[in-house]
Amino acid sequence: MSAPLWTAAEAAAATGGEARGDWQINGVSIDTRTLQPGDLFVALKAARDGHDFVAQALKAGAGAALVSRIPEGLPEDAPLLLVEDVQKGLEALGRAGRERTNARVVAVTGSVGKTSTKEMLARILSDQGRTHAAVASYNNHWGVPLTLARMPQDTDFAVIEIGMNHPGEIEPLARQARPHVAMITTVAAVHLEAFDDVAGIAREKAAILDGLEPGGIAVLNADIDEAPVLRQRAEQLGVSAQWFGARAPDARLLATQVTGEETVARAEILGAEAELHIQSLGAHFAMNALGALLCVNALGVDLAEAIRSLALWSPVTGRGAREMVELSQGQVLLLDDSYNANPTSVKAALDVLAATPVAEGGRRIAYLGDMKELGPEEVALHADLARHPAIAQVDQIHCIGPLMQHLAEALPDGKRGGWHADSAAAKADLPGQIGAGDVVLVKGSLSMKLASIVDGIRDLGHGSRNSDANSTK
């Protein structure tokens, strides 16, 4: 029988809290809908106060609950960990979880691609030792400590994703994670509502380097305009940096080719040529794979074995996953990238769509939803997508949301599909818009709920999800 993740005594010592009862737990959860028996339920205050769900969590089999007050109606012997502040208690548990392990840790941030890169790293490292990684996009003020608190003590490798919406968010999360390697995938015009310019975003991303362990390594994108900002911060901190990109000294992308269901990339990594096989289409995946390979090499992993493991990775649902949908008259290839969107990732997704072969009589179709948090330039950034070169290879673009209306107006008449105020209206109009042989991209910010468009396309046929499309939150 495996050891528990936390005992009551260990959790109390980690948080400075009071354990009521002699319990032990095997997981940590913040959501009663996904809670597993034996989990510690963390009663965070978000849209609702988690204390209102403690009784429900315990009834569902939670091993204990982390609370700042005892909810009414609980039995006297309810297993609890009582702390002054639940968020701070979770952070303390996460720091203790990180402290007690000898795991080699890599942390990933970036405006685009951090979740897919985190998944690449987890897939590669899982063939080299016991690997623990953030689930879904658990990368914020509760996601990072939750991931650390869930980490088993005998973990060999950990992959932590770190995100932000506002200045000052990354550094404290990086200091909790204390990575040995920190990677910045890219810096782009995302969250401009909270920053003066892209250089400000770069400075915030560079704050991940503040959390590096002594002797830690930064893995940075050499191709972006803001690379000097990242270099300056690394030099200020005395951090050794390795660079990836089309013109990078450490990992250089020489060529990419889309062949069927995969991207094949030729690269030079630390002086040796290599061929990379990636089970998804797009040069951006190949570029992030270069950075991931530098990361695992810095962790001491065999590079040749890592390249072989990379070929077994594929994107998760909502982040570029591909699946065939069977219609009565034939097949449709669905590119599900519905989880998130910003100008850089939308252009990359359109590049993938443009490069994807279509069957005879098939078309390339895109359903694009609003890109959020772009600040004063949001209208121009949506309209400017009409000038992206890949548009020439796309047959029809359906626009969803008030901001995407500006793209609809900027598109040539022959490219313009329908415009809808929301995903529900667009879903209702799906019948008749898609036919056999088509390749269909669905892309938008999460709040636009374009996953319903994905579900609507599936409903047109009787296909099932591709076996490599894993679930996400």
Automatic annotation (TrEMBL):
Pathway: Cell wall biogenesis; peptidoglycan biosynthesis. ATP binds at residues 110-116. It holds the Pfam family Mur_ligase_M. Signal peptide: none annotated. Residues 108-295 form the Mur ligase central domain. Gene3D superfamilies: Mur ligase, C-terminal domain (3.90.190.20), Mur-like, catalytic domain (3.40.1190.10), MurE/MurF, N-terminal domain (3.40.1390.10). Its main location: cytoplasm. Residues 325-445 form the Mur ligase C-terminal domain. GO terms for cellular component: cytoplasm. Its EC number is 6.3.2.10. The keyword Ligase applies. This is UDP-N-acetylmuramoyl-tripeptide--D-alanyl-D-alanine ligase.
